[in-house]
Amino acid sequence: MRVFITGGTGHAGSHIIPELIAAGHEVTGLARSDKSAAALSAQGAKVRRGDLEDLDGLKEAAADSDGVIHVAHRQDLLPSGGMDAVAAAELPIMLAYGEALEGSGKPLVAAGSIGSPGNLGRPATEQDPALPSREEDKGTLRVRNVVERAVVGLAEQGVRSSIVRLPLIAHDTTDSAGFLPGLIALAREKGFAGYPGDGANLWCAVHIRDVASVFRLALEKGPAGRYWHAIADAEIPFREIAEAIGSRLDLPTVSVPEDVLMLPGYFGQFTSLVTGSFPASSLITRQTLGWEPAQPGLFADLDNGHYFPAG
Ligand SMILES: NC(=O)c1ccc[n+]([C@@H]2O[C@H](COP(=O)([O-])OP(=O)(O)OC[C@H]3O[C@@H](n4cnc5c(N)ncnc54)[C@H](OP(=O)(O)O)[C@@H]3O)[C@@H](O)[C@H]2O)c1
């Protein structure tokens, strides 16, 4: 398949490209700079110069391809507009892909969030749609939900569209800017590994190479209009993550009240994620796509030491 990918130089995309090439696909990546173009070429991908703001360019690239994987995101909008602004920039892009791929039956696979079904009081499944609004659920990102629903809805226009929901922790040796290195850096800075309240809220995790294989399988054979869950370690109490970090840094593990977590020097705008509970099942993803995580789990990867360089 001739695959167009955005975000191919990012954390997820840089693992999706080799996964696709190893499976025999021809990959073209979007690059907005010489540096990104060189990184894509080094991975064995073709380069299409352009920017996420050029919707006509994205449409053309999508129409020229046999399928699209979209994992770029406008991280530059985070400081001024928060996570909602980052997600809002995705919507016109998805609608542009929809126009380009309408009626073609070609796949469009984009990244989503494991928090999008909201707090259901049970593990979320792939059959739980993204909530249409923020409602009262902590950790539910309204704008990102609109994007997820729009992508899945493109199935009605003849696009084989799907969303791969990622957990907050997608770990490996190249995870330099994710939540896990953020938690570790904060523990070093504060002198303790913190968790909210009793730390019983549940997080999930996955190795980023296992994420890459979900994207490939969804592209190759995922039915239209579906959510997939790239979840390997389901339902880890946040306290256990803090304890794992604390023990490896030789620091105490401490409960932190929510009003302290919200302070700027702490989690600030990410507090609702840190206090949120995101139990999720990946059974349907495994059964439908034949996916099985093959890489180390979270605690085994923490034992590998790369998150805790000396000094
Ligand atoms: N990785 C995780 O742990 C994780 C966890 C949960 C959810 N997710 C979701 O998965 C998706 C991918 O995340 P990621 O961590 O792989 O992202 P990332 O490492 O931050 O990479 C972002 C990518 O977007 C590209 N990009 C940004 N602005 C662009 C623009 N204006 N034009 C063209 N390209 C642009 C970047 O290209 P340059 O190289 O040019 O900067 C880079 O390739 C996101 O939607 C994220 O929310 C990721």
Automatic annotation (TrEMBL):
InterPro entries: Epimerase_deHydtase (IPR001509), NAD(P)-bd_dom_sf (IPR036291), NAD(P)-dependent_oxidoreduct (IPR051783). This is Nucleoside-diphosphate-sugar epimerase. One of its GO terms (cellular component) is cytoplasm. It comes from the Bacteria. Residues 3-226 form the NAD-dependent epimerase/dehydratase domain. One of its GO terms (molecular function) is aldehyde dehydrogenase (NAD+) activity. It holds the Pfam family Epimerase. Residues 114-138 are annotated as: Disordered.
